[in-house]
Design a protein that fits this description.
Layout: H1 4-12, H2 16-43, H3 47-57
Helix pairs in contact: 1-2
Transmembrane segments: 20-41
Protein name: Major Facilitator Superfamily protein
Keywords: Membrane, Transmembrane, Transmembrane helix
């Protein structure tokens, strides 16, 4: 993420403070999703979450 802020600022035409908030949100989301993913991997087989996700996002 260290090289992303200048690119994000240029591409989306936003100030540095907004990019810092986006980076913080990204890191917080990762911090929440990694333990949830570990729990799901230990609880279910690989096939069950895959089929569930395909059912949710399929058209």
């Amino acid at each position: 993420m260290i090289s992303a802020p200048p690119t994000l600022m240029h591409e989306f035409d936003v100030p540095g403070s907004t990019v810092q908030w986006l980076t913080t949100g990204f890191m917080l989301t990762n911090g929440i999703m990694i333990p949830i993913t570990a729990f799901l991997i230990e609880t279910f087989t690989t096939r069950q979450p895959f089929l569930y996700a395909m059912g949710i996002f399929a058209e």
